Amino acid sequence: MKTKVCCFAGHANIYNQDNVIEKLKKEIINLIENEEVITFYSGGKGAFDWLCAHTVDELRKDYPFIKSYWILSYMPKEKDEYTERISKIFDDTVYPDIEKTPLRFAISKRNEWMINNSDFLIAYVEHSWGGAAKTFEYAQKKKHIKIINIAQN
Question: How far apart are CA 106 and CA 108, in angstroms?
């Protein structure tokens, strides 16, 4: 049986963060309990990615079987404070086959990879511009992925 996967995409800045965290937690728990999702992918950039990573990490207390992966858009040149800090909340990192992608497109290609390899997307998209909006639009064109936009619920 294939493991069900959820990925995240959202804006770098979040307003009304407490409300977003409450909705996010509710949706993640629903996916774990009702959809049997046990694997979560995050890009590890921006406020929404951080909220998602920390929420999944916190939920491990009640759901110790869930896994969280940091999906890299490019290989870090060296370990620094950021990579050390973020690697502590993920089970592992994944670097998709995008190394030939120019750096300025690496995040978009990484986001497409996450959509293509996930069953669910939890998004926080309030407006139609920027990387999160492009990822959301890309996901809407895919038939295999179910989308939950907590910015609109």
Answer: 6
Domains in the chain, number: 1
Per residue, the 3-state secondary structure of the chain, as one string, reads: CCCEEEEEEECCCCCCHHHHHHHHHHHHHHHHHHHCEEEEEECCCHHHHHHHHHHHHHHCCCCCCCEEEEECCCCCCCCCHHHHHHHCCCCEEECCCCCCCCHHHHHHHHHHHHHHCCCEEEEECCCCCCHHHHHHHHHHHCCCCEEEECCCC
CA distance 22 to 123: 14
Q: How far apart are alpha carbons 33 and 56 in whole angstroms?
A: 14
CATH assignment at residue 64: 3.40.50.450
pLDDT digits over 26-36, tens only? 999 999 999 99
Domain of 56, in residue numbers: 4-149
Mean pLDDT, all residues of the chain: 91
Predicted TM-score (pTM) of this structure:
0.92
User: Within its chain, how far is the Cα of 153 from the centroid?
Assistant: 18
